[in-house]
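[stage:ingest] chain + small molecule (adenosine-5'-diphosphate)
[stage:ingest] validated
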Amino acid sequence: PKFVYAFSEGNKDLKDLLGGKGANLAEMTNLGLPVPPGFTITTEACRRFLSGGAVPGGLWEEVEDHLRAMEEKMGKRLGAARDPLLVSVRSGAKFSMPGMMETVLNVGLNDRSVHGLAEEAGDERFAWDSYRRLIQMFGRTVLGIGGDRFEEAIEEAKRHKGVSSDLGLTAADFHHLVEVFKGIVKDETGEDFPYDPRRQLRMAVEAVFDSWNAPRAIVYRRQERIPADLGTAVNVVAMVFGNLGMDSGTGVAFTRDPGSGRRGVYGDYLQNAQGEDVVAGIRNTIALQELQTIDPASYRELLAIMRTLEDHYRDLCDIEFTIERGRLWMLQTRVGKRTAEAAFRIATELADQGLIDMDEAVRRVSGDQLAQLMFPRFAAHDDMRPITRGMNASPGAAVGRAVFGSERAEELAGRGEDVILVRRETTPDDLAGMIAARGVLTSRGGKTSHAAVVARGMGKTCVCGAEELDVDVKERRFTAPGGVVVEEGDVISIDGTTGEVYRGEVSVVDSPVVRYFEGTGDLGDDLIQAVHRIMTHADERRRLGVRANADTPEDAGRARRFGAEGIGLCRTEHMFLGERRRLVEDLILAVSGEERQAALDALEPLQRSDFAGIFAAMDGLPVTVRLIDPPLHEFLPDITALSVQVALAGKDASDRDRRLLAAVRRLHEQNPMLGLRGVRLGLVIPGLFAMQVRAIAEAAAERRAAGGDPRAEIMIPLVGAVQELEQVRDEAARILTETGVEAAIGTMIEVPRAALTAGRIAEAARFFSFGTNDLTQMTWGFSRDDVEGAFFSRYLELGVFGVSPFESIDREGVGRLMSIAVAEGRATRPDLKIGICGEHGGDPESVRFCHEIGLDYVSCSPFRVPVARLEAARGAL
Ligand code: ADP
Ligand code: MG
Ligand code: MG
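[stage:predict] done
[stage:export] tokens:
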């Protein structure tokens, strides 16, 4: 293959082959912008070098051809004794990896060509400065010498001279530094600095190839999920010089503000400097606007080029440029990174300018960015330092009193206090406390730990895995580094966006975007306008419906304001917790039919009023109620605690406690998640599901009588066989007929067997809803609550999966089961309605997958509803 492309041969769409930098240098060249001549060695050459341990055959010949063409064009020869051509050798991968890999400037200088450069430029100081930079960069990058020795030598030279900036060093000082640097090279490598210009070039190219596998590049790629096998391209570019005096300089700029997205002139400039100096911070940069007075002509030209680039790329661009004695040169451009806020503003503004249409505007923003805009935030807090830092598990800002258990959390929250639940890790037992708390802080577990997953689902701020904290739940306190002790009741602040933990109160402000969704936002704000327009267009474009998972009238109301078109999952479990737990215990203890009926009779009116409130909040929209589905053990007292209690009480133990203990022993399960739950519970405890169906039917009937429009759907959990469903359906249908209420009966698809027999199951179900939490757990055969600490991080490291399958649907496995169920279910019943109600319903990637396989709707937590609306549109476009 062809390994080398002149800039004039490439274009911006060749990023795979030429890397981002090379493709964009080519694009600018072809746009007629002032780019120094140069060429790009392909990523393919890099991949071959890395796998074969040597550059591929023919590469150096191709490089030589392009170099010669460049020399001819410029009338200069690389590293010649008179008027030498110098080049930079620059890395540039497909995805930008800022500062991760290497670049060497001024290649071609040696003891002879340095004189030629000085003569041509009429500037001795410049030439020796450029030479010492080459040895320094080459030494570090190519020869692997630690940068400190060079830095120290420069500091020493400045000290000796009594100056504070490199501007105070003369030609003689730099000449001296070159000698010192050469000594360092010899000392560190045992060899002389390579004087042959072509050898310098080849060594630099190989070093850039190698930098693909530098440890920090590997870490960065893992973090940013950039594939490890892409390799980098290498750009060889004729040098232009920003260090030729005060009429020269170098800078970076954005075509608009990457923080806010607003138009204007944003950038930094440094006079008499080269490349790295701007970012290295060796001198203070000046604002780009000041260039207007320093060099008005170049400034005007730069602004015009920035407009050209933005119009051409139809997006925000960032650029690197250099001015050599009043002549402007473009050295890099790319579509620039931006904040979430800027993304929304830029997308709508470009649409207003007619550069993109609204479909493209919707593509230009993401659900993750919208989610970021929805989290409450800490106001500026310069005066406070974090006491520790954990993982940023669920964004937002939360302030409250530290509490160490659910009961205390509920108690204080009940009194109107804000609390932060602090635990070593959380379990389903902590759910009530998590609901009551403003935020959750744990010292163990990663981003897929129970605390993190549940908090994200609830849109609740969470910092997890803050390992420096010693959490003592018994003593109700934690200790942070430096001996900081936080006792129960002390106020702490946690930032789920950064993972920072503060002692004391940092003030929090509400997100204006949430106020907008709530209907109380300021429509005059241009950010809100941008969000509004994009969401409106997204709703027009999406095919996929969006519902919410909501168990209370409050959540249902919020979900509706956020745009939910119904409830896809109304869980009934929590309706049995708290004070009602005793009634559930009675149900489990019941020996006779009468006892059981009495317990059910006590529960029914409570359930009815639960449903009435939800139907009211979702009037006119579907509400899918899932019949009870908890692992039974969650309702029963802890077996150890109860055993101890009964043993200690001895003869005095109450009859109820003894019976309870017997029941707990009888019902104890080794694998509760695979045990007596879901439809199995309904089939084993007579009357339980019937009671729930009656409560639903009666609540709906009441609502209708009152003039409302309730649309109940009844959903059976954990079905694996059509026979299970038939049993429950027949009983439920009878009750519905009795009450004269119409409600569709359907099933969760969350057991692999259900997906595989979906054609049969659809005979008894009017709708399916994928419970992808359980479906993932059962498909992989690992327990969501136990995998985190055990092996997930290792699996991520090994690349078994790139992202936890609990975060984003595993398309290959779980997704395949879903596709099968969709196809076979619809084959049986063409009008089968199909949705998803697992955690994944609010995950951007998974929402797009659901669109692809033709689901009717996704259902997610109220807070994620706008995210799902947006991603549903992005999937459809
Ligand atoms: P990075 O990817 O880290 O930004 P670059 O390859 O862009 O690395 O180079 C680093 C710096 O060197 C940039 O500021 C760039 O402007 C400057 N530079 C690179 N090539 C040249 C050149 N041919 N002439 C002048 N400056 C250059
Ligand atoms: Mg750069
Ligand atoms: Mg389930």
